[in-house]
Description:
Elements: H1 2-5, E1 10-12, E2 17-18, H2 31-40, H3 43-52, E3 56-57, H4 58-63, E4 69-71, H5 73-87
Amino acid sequence: MLALACDRRLLRQDRGFICINEVSIGLTLAEGPWALIRSKLPPQTAHIAVTAAHRFGGTAAIQAGMVDSVSSAEDLERAAIALTASLANTAGRYWDD
């Protein structure tokens, strides 16, 4: 849920994965997490992720709409900094009165 709450998600290609595993550990999802899932994931991805606790890794996570990009371990920090830099000029644009 924490990753879904973020505006952008980057994943390590070789070892990273993203999943919604509440069902596999016996938890139920309250309305807040359901709203987050519905707002961030395509319906088919949400269905697979929630009902099967499917782990999406690498390019499958991108194709499913779970993450925005994947990088090697060596390039992940550089990719995160580049993404952040590309968004730096957007600060305040939507909040001007």
